[in-house]
């Protein structure tokens, strides 16, 4: 689903109604609809993983995070559609702020799991947390301020806002083909992340979920149990005199 969404949304900026190619896939209503479903599915993937690991470890913090992420992203998608239909950039700023809150919650859930696993699973969790930290830094330092500055500029020049119905007709029928770098330069960073890191993250979540049966062996208690089962017989075999005297 994520691959389909990125194909449908690629090389298009929704609020500006600009695209690189004159095709029906450049229709904002098509691309935004597919992207909405895919982004909710992406949030659901995280919720499933968090629920899986939270149940396995009994980590209530992680389980609570699993229940929170999808409702937050549903709200974010509402603000995304509001921005697209009305061309009101404040909606984009709120949308991406909610994504930041959502993934901050995910990071908290993952941090809670760090002491619950050893070895490569802990490494994977640490990598995921680091990636989320970078994503949050990008949202708060670049993405949200960009949309806020666009909103302030549109307010200053008195740009007309579209009503929801008028906006829906507009996104269904109008797209502007442009190859002018000036129109795209502010979109390059988030598009690069959206079309690469997000897709690979989605695929990685699928792989991680498929390894559910392998994860318990990396629990600390599993390591301790394994050590105990090998250490105790070794002690008995290594000290025959102690064994004869029942020590």
Offer a few descriptive terms.
247 residues, mainly alpha, 2 domains, three-stranded mixed sheet, 11 helices, disordered C terminus
Query: Mind telling me the C-alpha Rg?
Result: 25 Å
Q: Oligomer, anyone? A: single chain
Number of strands: 3
Summing up helix and strand content along with how strands pair, one would put the structural category as: mainly alpha
Order of helices and strands: HEEHHHHHEHHHHH
How many distinct domains? 2
What percentage of the residues does DSSP assign to strands (E)? Answer: under 5%
Number of helices: 11
Average pLDDT reading: 83
Identify the overall geometry: elongated
Strand order of the biggest β-sheet: 1-2-3
Q: What proportion of the residues is helical, as a percent range? A: over 70%
- Low-confidence region ranges: 241-247
Biggest pleated sheet: 3 strands, mixed
Report how far the terminal alpha carbons are from each other: 63 Å
């Amino acid at each position: 689903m994520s691959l389909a969404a990125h194909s449908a949304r690629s090389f298009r900026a929704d609020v500006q109604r600009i695209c690189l190619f004159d095709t029906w896939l450049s229709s904002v209503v098509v691309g935004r609809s597919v992207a909405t479903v895919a982004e909710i599915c992406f949030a659901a993937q995280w919720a499933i993983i968090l629920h899986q690991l939270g149940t396995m470890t009994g980590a209530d913090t992680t389980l609570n995070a699993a229940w929170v992420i999808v409702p937050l992203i549903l709200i974010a998608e509402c603000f995304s559609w509001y921005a697209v239909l009305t061309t009101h950039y404040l909606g984009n700023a709120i949308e991406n702020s909610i994504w930041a809150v959502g993934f901050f919650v995910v990071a908290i859930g993952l941090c809670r799991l760090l002491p619950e696993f050893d070895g490569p699973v802990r490494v994977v969790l640490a990598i995921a947390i680091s990636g989320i930290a970078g994503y949050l830094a990008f949202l708060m330092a670049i993405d949200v301020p960009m949309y806020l500055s666009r909103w302030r500029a549109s307010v200053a020049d008195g740009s007309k806002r579209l009503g929801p119905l008028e906006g829906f007709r507009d996104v269904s029928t109008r797209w502007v083909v442009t190859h002018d770098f000036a129109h795209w330069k502010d979109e390059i960073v988030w598009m690069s992340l959206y079309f690469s890191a997000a897709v690979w993250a989605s695929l990685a979540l699928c792989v991680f979920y498929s390894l559910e049966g392998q994860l318990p062996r990396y629990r600390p208690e599993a390591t301790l149990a394994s050590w105990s089962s090998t250490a105790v017989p070794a002690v008995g075999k290594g000290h025959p005199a102690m064994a004869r005297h029942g020590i």
